[in-house]
Design brief:
Order of helices and strands: HHH
Structural class: mainly alpha
Radius of gyration: 15 Å
Number of helices: 3
Number of strands: 0
Shape: elongated
Distance between the termini: 59 Å
Helix content: over 70%
Number of domains: 1
Length: 70
Amino acid sequence: MRTALLLPSITRRLDDILLVKELNAKFFDHSVREKLLHTAISAPSVSVEFDYERLELLGTRTLSLHLPII
């Protein structure tokens, strides 16, 4: 019974992992660490502690690589 209660959490985690792998392959050519990409797509309501300053730096760097400077 207790194991059945974990099933939604396990399913969500697997879904997150597959989404991160797909995004990394499709948009970043596997150049972004998957842990950082997972953090970037996770909602704050998940209650997982992340360092958003590092994500801000990652986002800025990604934009600077993909957008021409005007």
